[in-house]
Amino acid sequence: MRTIETGRRTGYLLARYAESLFWLGRYMERAEAMARLLSVTHTFSQDGASTLSWNSVVSLNADEKRFEKAHPVLTQEAVKNFYLLDADNPSSILSTIRMARENARMLRPVLSSEIWTQLNIFYNRMLMLRPSDIADNNVVSVCNFVRESCQSHTGIAEGTFPRDQGWAFYQLGVHTERADQITRLVDIKYHILLPRLEDVGSPLDISQWQALLRAAAAYHAFRRSYPRGLKPETVAGFLLLNQTFPRSLAYCAIEINQTLTALRMHYGLRGGGVALETIDEMRATMAEQTIDSIVANGLHEYLDWTQAALMAMTDSLYRDFFSPMPGG
Amino acid sequence: MSDLNALLDGYDPAASYCEMTAPNRLHEAGAAAILERLKSFNIEELQTRTSRVDREFYNLGITFTVYSEADVIDRVLPFDVVPRVITASEWSVLEAGVKQRVAAINAFLADIYSDQKILGDNILPRDLVLGNANYRQEVHGIPLINNAYVNICGIDLIRDQAGIFRVLEDNARTPSGVSYVIENRHMMLRVFADLFGSTQVRGVDDYGMRLQQAMIDIAGPEASDPTVVLLSPGIFNSAFFEHVFLAREMGVPLVEGRDLYVDDDDRVYMNTIGGPERVDTIYRRVDDDFLDPEAFRADSMLGVPGLLRAWRAGKVAIANAIGTGVADDKAIYAYMPRIIQYYLGEETIIPNVETHLCREPEGLQYTLDNLAELVVKPVGESGGYGMLIGPKSTQAEIDDFREKLTADPANYISQPTIDLSVSPTVTEDGLRARHVDLRPFAITGKDTWVLPGGLTRVALKEGSLVVNSSQGGGSKDTWVLSE
Fold first, then answer.
1. How many CB atoms lie within 10 A of CB A42?
2. What is the nearest CA distance from A109 to chain B, expressed in angstroms?
3. A-chain residue closest to B229, CA distance
4. Using H for helix, E for strand and C for coil, what is the string for chain A?
5. Distance between CA atoms of B380 and B378, rounded to whole angstroms?
């Protein structure tokens, strides 16, 4: 009689689980990034010239058309509602957490009960929020709640998720999303915040650059690296090229590279080669260039190229892992 | 000391058998001790613990999903904290009775899908089997290991006023509810551990392991280290929580139809990140109709094209087997005592409820003459839909039903209104008598094992006899006492 062997070989991860884990990681990071952005935008828009920065939240997410349809006039309250509570807006925190929970629901056979329960409670609390809960300064505590809930999730995952194939795809999701967020943040903000030609020479609005760093949770880390002064190029350079800060583009690229390499080495997977090449190319450009040369050659063009590379990498994950052809 | 009895003030089982206070139960030391401990709590305490349970189930996402036109609602199956107690001697009879039933059902299926001796011997009307919507010609002639057609069986039992357990219905397709049995126990241990005292209650935790073993037992001889999967219709299915639960308990992938495919070699594969991986046993929670669009409903998006072909070729085991629905049909049910006698040569251990077949002239006449006193059920429905409860219906409803019945008599059976036993249940007004049933679960691979107890469902509405979750039912923990 055959019995259950305790040390049974675990097979390869179900392709659909890999995809869901990738997106679970992305959605949780996305919600956290949005909460930081809204909170910082609120805090630094209290001095009057606010419309511009609220506007940039919309452009950062490439939501101009959808937003205009829901809110003909752009106001602070409209943006906050749109990005926190609007169930019809797929990039709202509510929608993002809903999608994370849907993925987690599908993934429950491979997630710890604690990951699921925390996310379930988080979502149920989000559902109970009303516009009055995010009015005026309340928005800061709601954003803190979202950020802390996302961080709880990250911590529970760190402490309960076996370091297996599933973890690798979850980590790929986390770092792909961070890389995506940071490139978009730098792209949008850099050009808004740069002094216009006629203003060159006038004092720089330091507080807005600090806000940018805070939106990426990078202010103190930046200060430790650059104790004196604050130049736009240094900020962009830090957020893109610093190799130790966990949300920088360079750091995320290193993590993605290592995760893909480990997947191929430890599990003998043949897929992932194209994704790895794409990431290596991205890392090569960062190694060869300084922020000054990137800015000189066109920061926007560079970030566009980076975004395209991240998308190409995701596509190749789909081809190789998430939707393999039957029998192929 | 009058306070000690305050909990049962206003508690009145009327003519129903009470699972907690019936005089004959109080001679059983274990059952009596539980009642005494229960009485040491007041109703407010029980109500507080009940709301704590609700909140916990909701947070844990132990919910079933209800789809209305506009909304998707996750609902907790209401849970009552007062357990339903089954004594050791009661259980030994029930366990033997359930095993007998499963053995007879499997022997019956093996026969009608091969030699059909039972039809040749005129024990059952031929058309009742061959004309049955759930009879699958395609299944004919497939040898199964141990004739295990029904690997997971749920048998619905009720208890009449005399305290006699009776079978109300067999569930031989994809019976659900076992996850609640196990979660209810975990919940009781968390919120009401003080009620257990020194009473030894039999555990329910090894269900997943037993199920996994049975799935390995039934895998074909080709598989040396069988890969088992659980096939679910997906997150939109109302029982999705249970699918997740069972996949976790067994430690197997929870797959959907789109994850699997049948190759030219008639083998079943699942798509993994490392390419196709062979699947040996599928515990499917998808109905026959939707299982294989090549063989059954062509519009099914939930199935796997070619699955029947793979199964017929002996390349994959499917639990439960295709075509088991013919055995739990309400018309076949009426013949079950004769089926047990025919295959096993035994008297039925757990009797049926008296049943009249409207397909037979005498049965139809009796039913039409006594509609106001009878329960009339369509044979193919489940979930308590489409039935008439005579004593609870208006004259207009009865007349309406009479027309439906005369138009298609073969579609109906009738039974006397059986009183269901009651169990003390927490309500806003205090502890009150509410009707309960019991669904024990049996797993069959190389042999048959019955989970001690089963799902006790409770009709939360006063006087209601309908325990289905879709119609206001809840559940209780079921305590089988050790010897």
1. 22
2. 5
3. A14
4. CCCCCCCCCCCCCEHHHHHHHHHHHHHHHHHHHHHHHHHHHHHCCCCCCCHHHHHHHHHHCCCHHHHHHHCCCCCHHHHHHHHHCCCCCCCCHHHHHHHHHHHHHHCCCCCCHHHHHHHHHHHHHHHHCCHHHHCCCHHHHHHHHHHHHHHHHHHHHHHHCCCCHHHHHHHHHHHHHHHHHHHHHHHHHHHHHCCCHHHCCCCCCHHHHHHHHHHCCCHHHHHHHCCCCCCHHHHHHHHHHCCCCCCCHHHHHHHHHHHHHHHHHHHCCCCCHHHHHHHHHHHHHHHHCCHHHHHHHHHHHHHHHHHHHHHHHHHHHHHHHHCCCCCC
5. 6
Q: Give me the total of CB pairs closer than 8 Å, taking one residue from chain A and one from chain B.
A: 100
The low-confidence residues of chain B, meaning pLDDT below 50, are 1-2, 4
Q: State the number of CA atoms in the 13 A half-sphere of B481 facing the CB.
A: 21
Residue A156 C-alpha, separation from nearest chain B C-alpha, in angstroms: 15
What is the pLDDT tens value at each position of chain A, 328 positions in all? 444 344 445 689 999 999 999 999 999 999 999 999 999 888 877 665 556 678 888 988 889 999 999 999 988 899 999 999 999 999 999 999 999 999 999 999 999 999 999 999 999 999 999 999 998 889 999 999 999 999 999 999 999 999 999 999 999 999 999 999 999 999 888 877 776 655 555 566 677 788 889 889 999 999 999 988 888 889 999 999 999 999 999 999 999 999 999 999 998 898 999 999 999 999 999 999 999 999 999 999 999 999 999 999 999 999 999 986 544 3
Query: What is the distance between the alpha carbons of residues A165 and B259, in angstroms, rounded to a whole number?
Result: 18
The residue in chain A having the minimum alpha-carbon distance to the alpha carbon of residue B261 is A326
Contacts of B274 in chain A (CB under 8 A): 11-12, 267-270
Residues 146-175 of chain A whose Cβ lies under 8 A from any Cβ of chain B: 165, 169
Identify which of A36, A20, A7 has the alpha carbon closest to the alpha carbon of residue A212: A36
Q: Check if A328 contacts B (Cβ < 8 Å).
A: yes
Tell me whether residues A11 and B277 touch, CB distance under 8 A.
Answer: yes
Nearest to B287, CA basis, from B364, B121, B173, B441: B173
Report ipTM (2 d.p.): 0.85
A2 contacts B61? CB cut-off 8 A? no
Q: Who among B209, B269, B273 is closest to A165 (CB)?
A: B273
Burial code (b: 16+ CB inside 10 Å, e: under 16) for B313-341 equals eebbbbbbbbbbbbbbbbbbbbbbbebbe
Distance from CA of A37 to the nearest CA of B (A): 29
Please write the tens of the pLDDT for every residue from B338-391.
999 999 999 999 999 999 989 889 999 999 999 999 999 887 665 567 889 898
Q: With an 8 Å Cβ cutoff, is A109 touching chain B?
A: yes
Contacts of B212 in chain A (CB under 8 A): 4
Cβ contact (<8 Å) for A321 and B273? yes
CB within 8 Å of B204: residues ≥ 6 apart? B181, B182, B185, B451, B452, B453
